[in-house]
Amino acid sequence: LIALAVITMTWGNLAAIRQKDAKRMLAYSSISQVGYLLLGVLAWGSGGYTAVIYYTIVYMVMNLGAFLVVSRLAHEGRDPRLEDFQGLAKRSPFLAFIFLLSVFSLAGIPPLAGFAGKWILFQSALNAGFPLLVIWAMINSTVSLYYYLTFVKEAYMKEPVPGKNVLTLRLSERIAGFLILLAILFLGIYPTPLYQLVEAAVRKL
């Protein structure tokens, strides 16, 4: 399991660095996230299981935000690429902000939900006696910032491609985006209620 954790988080991040396709980038990112989850599995016991379930819930929220943006940028069945993010902050500031918070949370930037989730995972692994593995996971989290920032830079620091119109969001998309942002911020600033709920469920098992 230690070897699998090291391989998945490392290979997932290194493969994601090379991607210009947004879906592929997020797919390889998810492989690295599995490596982080294995830290909780290694921790064993109720603390490790609680950490795994908690981070899985948080990960679903973060990924929903990222894929909401990616699916909105998809055109006629074509996966959005790096250039499709150019000037997104001007075409749709709300979508750009959702993507920013989602990927920063995936990277574990405080005070977002991903930071709280990784903190709980890493703490459970430390308590179980895996300090070197936690250090390697923290290095990989830092590496992941590179490919996330590559897409964020296109969205915020580049001008829109000529011919790309302003994106108009449906009401359902606005509501979904708002709820995702709220969850990412709330679970990062105040993770206790969800953590206690998960912990109580694990103890009953």
Tell me what the structure shows.
- With 205 residues, the chain is mainly alpha-helical.
- The longest helix is centred in the first third of the chain and has 29 residues, at 45-73.
- The protein has helices at residues 2-17, 22-43, 45-73, 88-91, 93-107, 113-127, 131-157, 171-189, 192-204.
- The protein is 78% helix and 0% strand.
Short structural description:
This protein has helices spanning 2-17, 22-43, 45-73, 88-91, 93-107, 113-127, 131-157, 171-189, 192-204. By secondary structure, it is mainly alpha-helical.
Keywords:
single chain, mainly alpha, 205 residues
Layout: helices, strands, pairs:
Elements lengths: L1 H16 L4 H22 L1 H29 L14 H4 L1 H15 L5 H15 L3 H27 L13 H19 L2 H13 L1
Helix pairs in contact: 1-2, 1-7, 2-3, 2-6, 2-7, 3-5, 3-6, 3-8, 3-9, 5-7, 5-8, 6-7, 6-8
Regions with little confidence, pLDDT below 50 for 5+ residues: none
Strand count, sense and closure of the main sheet? none
Helix-residue proportion: over 70%
| Beginning-to-end CA distance, first to last residue | 23 Å
Shape: globular
Evaluate the radius of gyration. 17 Å
**Counted beta strands:** 0
Mean pLDDT: 92
Order of helices and strands: HHHHHHHHH
Strand content: under 5%
Sheet/helix structural class: mainly alpha
Q: If helices are DSSP runs of H or I spanning 4 or more residues, what is the number of helices?
A: 9
